Amino acid sequence: QKEVEQDPGPLSVPEGAIVSLNCTYSNSAFQYFMWYRQYSRKGPELLMYTYSSGNKEDGRFTAQVDKSSKYISLFIRDSQPSDSATYLCAMSEPSSASKIIFGSGTRLSIRP
Amino acid sequence: GAVVSQHPSRVICKSGTSVKIECRSLDFQATTMFWYRQFPKQSLMLMATSNEGSKATYEQGVEKDKFLINHASLTLSTLTVTSAHPEDSSFYICSARWLSSYNEQFFGPGTRLTVL
Q: Which residues of B touch A104 (CB under 8 A)?
């Protein structure tokens, strides 16, 4: 079993829709949770960064962490064609020496 | 802030040659740099972690003698793919963090290597 599971998609939704992206994980020691956006042939860009459980909102993006279920989500409101990209969840343990473990990424396409 | 650059962005080389990729942190001192490899439609696979002035720590299955990593300064790390073969063709991405950024990493734009 992979440490982090993420549905690869592709996921296609119409412009303006609410998008829900999810990851599950198996390591209960993970405390830092991140979402990265990666456009084709580019490096990942950090979108959201949360510590432990709870919600975090930044503009149209909301990240949720449910540690009891080992489940994290990223919601995108009022989705735009420019949101079309691959979204990678990532997580790590608290130690500064910990590696970041990435999900496989979900390819998202927003139809105009 | 927290900008990381890579050079070159794309390189094509013949089989058997060596290729050097540079990773620079432009506006911060990177105490730790990471090198990842990404195949098409797949996630990032960590190859090695390098701390400034120390030998790199390689992940299991990554050949140290094939992927030479040097982190000689707080703003520069290099990855040299030695005696490259077509199976080394991939997207190589570096990331960097500074001591107080804890687990937050900032990624470069990546280098696409094609070995003919």
A: 42-43
